[in-house]
Amino acid sequence: MKNIIALFILITGTFASAQSFDFQYDHYSVIVKDLDKVGAFYKDVLNLKEIPHPSAPSGFKWFVIKGNSQLHLIGKDSVAMEHSKSVHLCLATQKLDELIASLEEKNITYYDWPGKENTVTLRADGVRQIYLKDPENNWVEINDAVHLIKNN
Q1: Exposed, middle or buried: residue 48 (CB in 10 Å: 0-12, 13-18, 19+)?
Q2: What's the Cα-to-Cα distance from 150 to each of 22, 23, 132, rounded to whole Å?
Q3: What are the residue boundaries of the VOC domain, all occurrences included (predicted)?
Q4: Tens of pLDDT along 52-82?
């Protein structure tokens, strides 16, 4: 009987460890020095909708990306960070050409992955992508990847 119970625990433990936690993307946070200037970039250039912080009246700016996904800007007096392009917020849109036209109209430089100005990268999987910097040089990738909601 003990062997059957041990086998049951082993089998159910194996199944439990293979289960998905069914994560949903919640938010990305960025520490910034000039909260108003960086907030204006995300609001006015990328047209993200600002939402109120649930408890703090100052020091934060929150934006909705889509659904419940959010961007949180956190204002700090000093920000010690190297701005590597490999560390970035990535947003996807099926309106990449319209966004590029808007950036060009506002004289905002964007880059391909190697760093050539005002150029689009075409990834091997067919996704087009650009990179731009917010006012404090945090990188933002914007691509035209299609995201389908999967019900598992």
Answers
A1: buried
A2: 11, 12, 30
A3: 24-145
A4: 988 877 899 999 998 889 999 999 888 777 7
Our separate counts of H helices and E strands in the chain read 3, 8
Q: Which distant-in-sequence residues (6+ apart) come within 8 Å of 113 by Cβ? A: 85, 121, 129, 131
Q: Does 62 fall in a domain?
A: yes
- Amino acid identity for residue 151 in this structure: N
Q: What are the tens digits of pLDDT across the range 89-104?
A: 999 999 999 999 999 9
> Looking at the 3D structure of the chain, how many domains does it have?
1
Residue with tokens 């082993």: 10
Question: Would you say residue 57 lies in a domain?
Answer: yes
Q: Which residue has the tokens 């945090």?
A: 138
Residue type for 1, please? M
pLDDT for res 131: 95
Residue 113 is part of which domain span? 27-76+85-143
**What order do you get walking across the sheet with 69-75 strand by strand?**
27-32, 69-75, 60-66, 49-51
Query: Is residue 100 in a domain?
Result: yes
